[in-house]
# Entry
Amino acid sequence: MSAGEGKPRRLRDEERKLWGHFTRSVAPLRRPPASADPPPAAASSKAKSAAHPRSPARAAVPAARAAAGLEPFDRRLKQRLARGTESIDARIDLHGKSQSEAHAALLSFLRQAQGDGAKFVLVITGKGGGARDDWSERGVLKRQVPQWLKLPEFRGYVVGFDDAHIGHGGQGALYVRIKRPRSRTRTS
# Structure
């Protein structure tokens, strides 16, 4: 064993740049949706973790997973949308927008669509074909929009979503089912 094997070496600048480029292109694996009822082992681990000071950070993870359970589209519904027998009530194109602009525009669009009584909308993200240079990310909105639709701030508007048919944009677009607005009863 040589003297330098016990310590990890530091990365050079060019290695650090290469690693940064590589890690930007990696997307996390999708986990299977968690069931609404936590398994008994998870309930007992919560009780055990209450005694530890680090437990609040760990307790927030199951809540975030539970919020991601959106209703999937069945095959026939997707066929009706693709054939036009089920109408797409509105559409938004997010091409050319930054992430913050697209997030705000999508939230506003879904709020408006729900207010207008839309049942299904089309969200066009694009496939991420053109990057400005070798170091910029491609398909950021294509990856981000599905994540946003699972967030609590969108849950009041979204029932579920799925990739669109090739005629509506394929993997560069999403069908989104809009949640019905809660009926407000007025007292006279």
